């Protein structure tokens, strides 16, 4: 269906379904969902001319003297909101943000992902991504206390959120977002949801929608859903694992390698992985963008995030895991990127990891060998001597790599790179100047 056919379908649906409000969705640079509503009478004009708004009110967009922005709805993302009334209904549509001259706005994360997607397409590749998102349920938004004591995949009466997970899945499916499975994760009151793979831009939209619906369904049950990477010290952390693969224009999975009888990966897949590992330190600020993100990374266990830029077949503490190949399932050949967390902006995460992978393919970077269990057991010194690079251990360190990276400036564009760096440096300074409970406990009485 071409764009005009999509527009005609949307306009017809709005009329037939008695839609009274159309919410225009987009994200700021940090990945926070933004929205404003228009009447259905203005929708046709919005498709043709965009809807103007004040960009200076959105973090990371424009200065007050350059405030005028236009939101152009993407008709392929139109969905009626199933939780709103059927009479005088409400729909949503994701938007592309443009400048008054109708050129793409450099600070729009969705446009950043689209640019990288087109770059991959020009090289003959289509990126597919399947996300697995973890989160916690808490009694409210200021009490990080689990609501149950169930564990990974447990089916027990103490799993307090079975019905809530079911309702969340049903709501997502009504929004045309297919769910592969949901489960109780490792921590008490921690949950996971796996979405079916799709091309990268659609998946990024789906992640934003899923996070909103997870929070909305929890709120309707008087529960707070949190995507914070490490909300409880000593408890399992929450990640956003991304299963990535590249397809060609004929629908073949180019990550599949019939000659590799061990990993079943093609040279393209190995170069792609090598590219991500080569840029691992630079992309960390985007995949793990908060102070709390680095409470998760580096634990070295399956309940924590990766500490080193390494890969493995069964090693869940690796940055990249290769899921075990199932005979006859060539289309499912993929890698699992295990560093990102759900506090990140999915458009930017997919854009920079795709950029890193493409760089690996273009330069034919060699994939380093998979570290052996004995090498991993040898600890930091053994891994360092073997040439494995440690990932940043703090947001401050990650920003140092990010700031000096011309690769990241090219992947994100100067606008997003500069704003993100400025905003996150400020966030780190505020954290560094905060007196914590730990400091008071250990130093106050003896000072």
| Euclidean distance between termini CA atoms | 70 Å
Identify low-pLDDT runs: none
Taken in chain order, the helices and strands follow as HEEHEEEEHEHEEEHEEHHHEEEHHHHHHH
Radius of gyration: 22 Å
Number of domains: 2
CATH third-level topology of the largest domain? Creatine Kinase, Chain A, domain 2
Can you give a write-up of this model?
Helix 3 packs parallel to helix 9 and helix 13 (406-412) crosses helix 14 (414-432). The protein is α+β, with helices and mostly antiparallel strands and 447 residues long. It contains 15 helices and 15 strands. The radius of gyration is 22 Å and the shape is globular. The protein has helices spanning 3-16, 43-49, 109-122, 162-174, 200-220, 267-278, 280-287, 293-296, 346-363, 373-377, 379-385, 395-403, 406-412, 414-432, 437-444, and strands at residues 19-27, 33-38, 51-54, 68-73, 79-80, 89-98, 126-138, 179-184, 190-195, 198-199, 224-226, 240-247, 311-312, 320-321, 335-337. The chain has 2 domains: 3-103, Roll (Ubiquitin-like (UB roll)), CATH 3.10.20.70; 114-428, Glutamine synthetase/guanido kinase, catalytic domain (Creatine Kinase, Chain A, domain 2, 2-Layer Sandwich). The strands form 2 sheets. Strands 7, 8, 9, 10, 11, 12, 13, 14 and 15 form a 9-stranded mixed β-sheet that branches. Strands 1, 2, 3, 4, 5 and 6 form a 6-stranded mixed β-sheet that branches.
């Amino acid at each position: 269906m071409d764009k005009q056919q999509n527009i005609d379908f949307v306009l017809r649906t709005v009329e037939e379904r008695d839609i009274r409000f159309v919410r225009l969705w987009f994200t700021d640079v940090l990945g926070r969902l933004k929205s404003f509503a228009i009447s259905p009478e203005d929708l046709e004009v919005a498709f043709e001319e965009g809807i103007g708004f004040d960009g200076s009110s959105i973090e990371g967009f424009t200065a007050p003297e350059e405030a005028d922005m236009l939101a152009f709805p993407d008709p392929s993302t139109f969905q009626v909101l199933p939780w709103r009334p059927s009479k005088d209904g409400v729909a949503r549509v994701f938007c592309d943000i443009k400048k008054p001259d109708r050129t793409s706005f450099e600070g729009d994360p969705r446009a950043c992902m689209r640019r990288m997607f087109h770059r991959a397409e020009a090289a003959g590749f289509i990126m597919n991504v399947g996300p697995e998102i973890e989160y916690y349920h808490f009694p409210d938004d200021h009490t990080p206390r689990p609501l149950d004591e169930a564990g990974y995949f447990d089916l027990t009466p103490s799993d307090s959120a079975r019905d809530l997970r079911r309702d969340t899945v049903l709501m997502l499916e009504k929004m045309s977002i297919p769910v592969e499975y949901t489960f109780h994760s490792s921590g008490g009151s921690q949950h996971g949801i796996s979405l079916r793979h799709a091309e990268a831009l659609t998946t990024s939209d789906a992640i934003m929608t899923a996070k909103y619906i997870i929070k909305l369904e929890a709120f309707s049950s008087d529960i707070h859903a949190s995507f914070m990477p490490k909300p409880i010290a000593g408890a399992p952390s929450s990640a956003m694992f991304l299963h990535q693969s590249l397809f060609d224009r004929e629908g073949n999975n180019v990550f599949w390698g019939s000659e590799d009888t061990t990993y079943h990966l093609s040279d393209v897949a190995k170069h792609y992985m090598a590219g991500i590992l080569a840029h691992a330190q630079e992309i960390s600020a985007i995949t793990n963008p908060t102070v709390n993100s680095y409470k998760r990374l580096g634990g070295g266990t399956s309940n924590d995030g990766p500490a080193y830029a390494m890969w493995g077949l069964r090693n869940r503490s690796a940055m990249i895991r290769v899921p075990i190949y199932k005979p006859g399932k060539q289309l499912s050949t993929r890698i699992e990127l295990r560093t990102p967390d759900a506090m990140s902006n999915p458009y930017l995460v997919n854009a920079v990891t795709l950029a890193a992978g493409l760089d690996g393919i273009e330069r034919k970077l060699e994939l380093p060998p998979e570290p052996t269990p004995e090498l991993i057991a040898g600890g930091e010194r053994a891994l360092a001597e073997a040439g494995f690079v440690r990932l940043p251990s703090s947001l401050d360190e990650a920003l140092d790599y990010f700031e000096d990276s011309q690769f990241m400036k090219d992947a994100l564009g100067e606008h997003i790179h500069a704003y993100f760096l400025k905003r996150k440096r400020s966030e780190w300074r505020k954290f560094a100047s905060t007196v914590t409970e730990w400091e008071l406990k250990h130093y106050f009485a003896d000072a």
